[in-house]
Every structure is written in structure tokens, then in C-alpha cells.
Design goal:
Length: 379
């Protein structure tokens, strides 16, 4: 319930001092929250009866209102979300947000930078963790919040429920979780819709990224919702369609998807621009999967290969694929020499993260911010 759109619901905008009341709401302490809200709305004084006039809107802040706000969910692939008022400059925050979908609780974490949102709204990055991780662990390991602060972007971190996967993996390999409007894609898009409804977001700048199983799910979301996401980043992950059951997933992780790279039939440029990072010493998800991601994105186009090294000496090979029409870069593949199954250039205090090497978060955000979504139907 971070950033509830009170103004949109006809209630007065609460001062910053009422953040404590919202925290109580998130914990379910509704009576205490209601008392604080009434004090704030009436200058700190208790009143036996609310005054008449517009301020009586506070009395409508009931349990049903709270559940209505928390239960915002996307119903289809047509994403027309209301815009929330822009936040003014203040303190950055990284907090848990209560959220319900399909009758169940699915809290997530949201990073909001300190800077004021631009007139067009902020970019938002949906970050999907790998197996055994959670939102806070992934945020620390990737250091994406620091990059987002510089760019003025929001970062949305869901956490997979252990009831859905006992290892905390996103179920990228299950057919019911590989389709728009169903399963985990629907849940994740509903979370994004909630953020777009409660924060000032530029709808042209929604991005998705992930590590390992989260990277594979990011690829699924980009394939299924090209009208939503402006670009996708996959670190140590797999292509959408690389597997359709658990055995196929284990096989693809071990040696890559069988046969042709998934999704390569038909050729042409990728519907969603893509940036890939993969270590050539990854023994958890074979590096061939990174190559297949690139193959699934582009069959035609001009390729350019560059070699270099990071500031701390890690060697890499970077392949750029340019559009067959506009010659702009539509995909990047970074093969990180000597790197294993870990987010490169991150914070080793997080799991599956390396403090050395190419700063994947920085390069990923650079790629994203250069690419607002283009409505191809208007070209």
C-alpha cells in the first residue's frame, strides 16, 4: 500500500507524518491506524464526531477501502493504468508493500528514489530473483537500487512464495506459467499495474530483468507482454520456451535447450530489446543458454563483437546485434570470461552475487534508459 492514491479516492492528501498510520494499516492494526488518521486530518486533535464537509472522507477509510486498494490486479494484456500524482523530492525509501492477488497475499518490495519524479513519470524495473533468494537479498546482491537512484527509477522486487515453489524459484518451465494472463505472468503484471497506479510512472519505460530462474521468467514476460515492456535483461538465465516441465528444465540448465534455439522460427528483430549477461564458467545454467537467448531474439541483423575488460580486470566478449531496418542496437550479449553463476559487479553479501567484474546493474540500466518503448503501430 505504499503511496496510496488518496487524492484519486476523494480523500485529502495526508502529510508525511502519517506514514506511521500507513505502517499500522499494513500490519492490520486498523483501529490504531484510524485513530492516527483522524488526528492527522484534524490537526492532531481527537474528535468524537467528524466535522461535516470534504474532510469527512477520512471516515470512508475503512477495511473495505484498504482491501480494494490492495487487490488491484491486471485483467488482460491491455495495460491502461491510472497515473498517480508525482511525488515531490524527499528521502529514498525501500519498503515492503502489501498486495493481494487471486485471494492470496503477495507482498513485494519497492524502491523509490529521493529525487522528484519528472513530468513524464519515472521508469520502473521489475526485478526477479533467482532460486533460494528473496527480494531483499536480491536487492543487496545486485546493488540495483544504487543505480536506480542515479537514474531516478523505481525498482519492484517480488518474492516467490515457497508454497508455489519450495526452492523459491519462479516456475518459468511450467506451461501454465508461460502464458499472458495466467499463472505467474498474470501475478507479476498485476504487481506492476499496482505500482503504476500508485506511483508516477512513465508507461513507456517499464523494464523487466532477472537472475537465473528469474531471468528465465523475465524472458517469458517480455515474450508475452511486448506491449508493456520496453526492454528485458537476463543474467545467467534461459530463453522463453527452453523447457515445459521439470525434466526439460534440468536438461536445459545442464546443456541448453534441445534442438533449435527457442523462439527462433520466423526471424526478424526482437519484439523487446534484450541485454544478456552470462559467465562462461557457469556450471548451474550452461552458457549456451545465453547464446540461445540471443538467437531467440534475432536471426537477421548486423552483428559486431567487442573484447574488453572491466576496471578490475575481468575479460568479456560483448556482441551487439543491430536492427535489420534502423541499424540501432536491439540486443547485447556479454560473455563474462571466468565468471560463474553470480550477478556480476554486485555485492557479495547477497547470495549468488560477485563483487568483481562488469557492473551488470549499471550496464543493464544504461541499456534500459536508452530505450523507451516505441509503439510500432504508429510508425
Amino acid at each position: 500500500m505504499n503511496g496510496l492514491p488518496f487524492a484519486q479516492r476523494g480523500a485529502p492528501v495526508l502529510p508525511a507524518s502519517m506514514a506511521e498510520a500507513l505502517a499500522l494499516v499494513r500490519r492490520g492494526e486498523l483501529q490504531r491506524a484510524s485513530s492516527l488518521l483522524m488526528k492527522g486530518l484534524h490537526g492532531g486533535a481527537e474528535r468524537a464526531e467528524p466535522a461535516s464537509g470534504p474532510h469527512t472522507a477520512a471516515a470512508r477509510f475503512s477495511r473495505s477501502d484498504i482491501e480494494d486498494v490492495d487487490d488491484i490486479r491486471a485483467t488482460s494484456t491491455a495495460q491502461v493504468w491510472p497515473r498517480a500524482p508525482a511525488h515531490t523530492q524527499g528521502r529514498a525509501r525501500f519498503s515492503s508493500v502489501a498486495f493481494r492477488h487471486g485471494g492470496a497475499d503477495h507482498p513485494f518490495h519497492l524502491y523509490v528514489p529521493a529525487s522528484a519524479a519528472p513530468p513524464a513519470g519515472r521508469a520502473v524495473i521489475l526485478m526477479l530473483h533467482g532460486c533460494t533468494q528473496d527480494a531483499q537479498d536480491f536487492a543487496q546482491g545486485t546493488r540495483m537500487n544504487a543505480q536506480a537512484e542515479r537514474a531516478g527509477a523505481l525498482v519492484l522486487y517480488p518474492t516467490q512464495q515457497r508454497a508455489a515453489n519450495h526452492n523459491g524459484c519462479w516456475n518459468w518451465f511450467r506451461p501454465e506459467d508461460q502464458r499472458a494472463g495466467a499463472g505467474e505472468p498474470a501475478l507479476l503484471l498485476a504487481m506492476l499495474g499496482h505500482v503504476m497506479a500508485t506511483e508516477a510512472v512513465d508507461p513507456r519505460r517499464a523494464y523487466v530483468a532477472g537472475l537465473s530462474a528469474g531471468g528465465a521468467m523475465a524472458a517469458v514476460l517480455a515474450r508475452e507482454y511486448p506491449e508493456v515492456f520496453a526492454a528485458v535483461g537476463v543474467h545467467s538465465g534461459l530463453a522463453a520456451g527452453a523447457a515445459h516441465n521439470m525434466m526439460g528444465a534440468l536438461s536445459a540448465m545442464r546443456s541448453g535447450a534441445k534442438g533449435d534455439a527457442p523462439g527462433t522460427q520466423g526471424g526478424g528483430d526482437p519484439a523487446v530489446p534484450l541485454i544478456v549477461f552470462h559467465g562462461d564458467r557457469d556450471t548451474t545454467v550452461h552458457p549456451r543458454n545465453g547464446e540461445q537467448l540471443l538467437g531467440a531474439a534475432v536471426l537477421r541483423g548486423m552483428t559486431e563483437t567487442q573484447s574488453g575488460h572491466s576496471g578490475d580486470g575481468q575479460r568479456y566478449t560483448r556482441t551487439l546485434v543491430r536492427s535489420s531496418d534502423t541499424k540501432t542496437v536491439q540486443a547485447e550479449h556479454w560473455l563474462l570470461h571466468g565468471a560463474g553463476h553470480a550477478w556480476s559487479g554486485g555485492d557479495a553479501r547477497g547470495s549468488h552475487a560477485s563483487a568483481t567484474g562488469v557492473n551488470a546493474s549499471q550496464e543493464m540500466l544504461r541499456f534500459f534508459m536508452e530505450r523507451p518503448r516505441v509503439d510500432k503501430s504508429s510508425l
